[in-house]
Amino acid sequence: MIENVIGYPASRLPILRLERTALQDFESALGYEWLVTNGLGSYASGTVLGVDTRRYHGLLIAALQPPAGRTLLLARMHETIEVADGVYPLHAAEYHDGTIHPNGYFFLEGFSLIGTLPTWRYRVGDTVLEKTLWLARGRNSVFVRYKLLSGQGQTALRLAPFVAHRDYHSQTHGDAAWQFDIQAQPESCRIEAYTRATPLWLALQRGRFEETGIWYWRFLHRRERESGLDSLEDLFTPGTFHIELAQGEEATFIATTDRGDLEIEPAPGISGEYARQAALLDQAGATPDDPVRQRLVLAADQFLVQRGTAGRSVIAGYHWFADWGRDTMISLPGLCLATGRAEEARKVLSTFMTFLDQGLLPNRLPDEEDVPEYNTVDATLWLFEAIARYEGATGDPTFVDEILPSLQSIVDWHERGTRHGIAVDHGDGLLRAGAPGLQLTWMDAKVGDWVVTPRCGKPVEVQALWYNALCLLAGWRKERGKDPTPFLAEAEKCRVSFNQRFWNPTRGYCYDVVDGPDGNDPSLRPNQLLAASLSYPVLMKLRLKPPSERWYYTMVFKKG
Questions:
Q1: Helix 325-332 to helix 342-353 angle, to the nearest 10 degrees?
Q2: Which CATH architecture has domain 2-275?
Q3: Per-residue pLDDT averaged across 14-40, rounded?
Q4: CA distance 356 to 143
Q5: Contact 254/201 with Cβ under 8 angstroms?
């Protein structure tokens, strides 16, 4: 159910709510996941029940080389409350044999997403405890606020954080190599997993820390097991934080790589994040009468990140993707232009253009010390469409003024030939691509050395993008008093060849690839839709209506 927030600091934020009846259906509730990001590529994520089902779940996955180098630092929290009639665990975990222990989710009365921030509400008798989680913007710090909404006398709260220091693609397995040096203070502790590991500071506001140093063994991540991957993990807890709360009181737990954040008053942090999200909605013109649009605006924000000192970038997807060229160029109009963030779109485009090499944008941007990967034929061509969308949305010609020489260089490189066999066939004006062992289009699945769908030759969407790029470049040159003739001539040659060579009259749609190793590929794939949907469609209009009906019938009904 989607509602509007009432009674929260940012009253215009949308709220998603799960009530107790939905939360007590364990298997169903385990499918609900939440995600909080910090604009660096760091995130916190899990299931609403607190049972981690993926290796990518955790309370602080920190991008130590933003937005890359993502490292699990704080995996989970075991929470216990003590009231007059006993001690009750609020957490839950699944172990190697499928045992769920303890079943703290039984006390979960409600879960809400206020904007993108999760809030849990637990009830044990007359005692009601609310928990809210957020990340510091632009810093690797997670805050978890506990507030006692109701209760008789003092309620004791115990928190046992579980830490790690691993790449988020892997699993932690306990052995002697892990040192987990603990430097304890009355309200906090500093943990170093091994020599020269990034230190992690843990603290509970007004709390007391008791060191234990215990390993828990063989937590199960069931989604990894379903995928046939390593699904077991061991985790270390340095100790337990203790505090007593009276009704109306709250305390905030902090885990951070920046010791200075231990001194920050937490309350303004969450209010500031609510206010930031409300400002994004205002900027996008997303009002409370359209909460679905509001959610899309806030979801779009989670993909925009800072790439070190290089500038703005886009995460291709959570949990496991980094910033990819193709995904960025395709998504940029929706992420930035439709949300009123055109200046950020320009910054993202500028970031990627700094990696332009031999006429190509990277398929994937590198980690801090790595080199970019250029195994893509279409990311660079999508750049032209993204720039056209930016210019159309803003009416700002200055960006094209700045980068026009680079755009011309891209076309020049493609015409004379660049990496991976990417080059214009001057016989027909179409763009060919392909090299052994490389996947160059979006159909990029690869298992070991096996490229599942190589698509060597002249892929249909690549021709659509190439024609579109030539037409856009010609137009930009003409607007600036430069001769567009050579590029218009190349575009026309491409258009004529495309409509002669790609149309399959027998089947009533386009070939997926022509001039492949085994000839023309008649596979029916959605790639050909780009031939009719870019700024400059390459497909002749007379072919549009009949195949569109056939495409729809075949793809939806026959393909399922």
A1: 160
A2: Distorted Sandwich (2.70)
A3: 97
A4: 39
A5: yes
